[in-house]
Specification:
The chain is an alpha/beta fold. The protein folds into two domains: 5-105 and 114-119, Winged helix-like DNA-binding domain superfamily/Winged helix DNA-binding domain (Arc Repressor Mutant, subunit A); 126-213, Alpha-Beta Barrel (TIM Barrel), CATH 3.20.20.70. The protein is 42% helix and 14% strand. The chain is built from eight helices and eight strands. The protein has helices at residues 9-30, 36-47, 54-61, 70-82, 146-157, 176-182, 191-194, 199-213, and strands spanning 5-6, 87-89, 97-99, 106-109, 116-120, 126-130, 164-168, 186-188. The strands form three sheets. It has a three-stranded antiparallel beta sheet, with no helix packed on it. Strands 6-7-8 form a three-stranded parallel beta sheet, covered by helices on one side. Strands 2-3 form a two-stranded antiparallel sheet. The protein is elongated and about 75 Å long.
């Protein structure tokens, strides 16, 4: 089992060469033209470590292709996304940024500087957000954590993360609807279930409450 790791510069370079060869083969199979401009745009995207926006890619590519236009770079990036050779990275940013890494991976986003790093975490399939101070049961739900839930939900819905969003702490009949509406997939309820006269009925009731307000839950 391998643990989570950021994609290193060396790993990015190796991946870029493999992806460029794969891109050429895919284009030929799909009968899509392999132009020097498309190769240059994809290479600049693959070699970048910060998920650049179109302006950054344009500035890089025009050193080699001085007559290329910003509009051509935009169209090329959109075309690459349309055919599955690149992805958009948009949450927390005012303009679209692009990612040439098409392998399954997650993103780590700095909420201050907005830097985005690729995170390879094959075993990471659930994000647990604590809604109490860890340590003991029976604490009150902390509603401020729902901001984090909302960010995670947007990342999942945009396709940038393929995980379940889980919440633990203070989940009961008064708080589960807030959590479900914010985007939680999995709920950990201790006192609300085991402190009930009928735990099984408490679970059914909580599940019904969550499903009633969530657009994505299918319980």
């Amino acid at each position: 089992m391998t643990g989570p790791k950021l994609l290193s510069g060396h790993g990015r370079g190796d991946y870029a060469e493999a992806r460029l060869a794969e891109f050429v083969a895919n284009c030929r199979r799909k009968k899509m033209a392999v132009t020097p401009q498309r190769l240059a745009v994809l290479r600049a995207l693959l070699e970048s470590g910060d998920h650049p926006h179109a302006d950054r890619i344009y500035a890089h590519v025009r050193r080699e292709h001085p007559h290329i236009s910003l509009a051509t770079v935009h169209r090329t990036l959109e075309r690459l996304c349309d055919v599955g050779e690149a992805n958009k990275v948009t949450p927390l940013h005012e303009t679209a940024r692009y990612d040439g890494n098409t392998r399954p991976h997650h993103h780590v986003v700095c909420v201050r500087c907005k830097r985005v790093e690729d995170l390879e975490a094959p075993e990471f399939d659930t994000l647990l957000i604590m809604s109490v101070e860890p340590g003991f049961g029976g604490q009150a739900f902390i509603p401020e954590v729902l901001v984090k839930v909302g960010i995670a939900r947007r990342l999942v819905d945009s396709g940038e993360l393929t995980i379940l969003v889980e919440i633990d702490g203070g989940v009961n009949e008064d708080t589960i609807e807030q959590a479900a509406a914010a985007g939680v997939d999995c709920f950990v309820a201790g006192s609300a279930v085991y402190g009930a006269d009928d735990p099984a009925a408490a679970v059914r009731s909580l599940r019904q409450q969550a499903a009633a307000v969530s657009p994505h839950l299918r319980l």
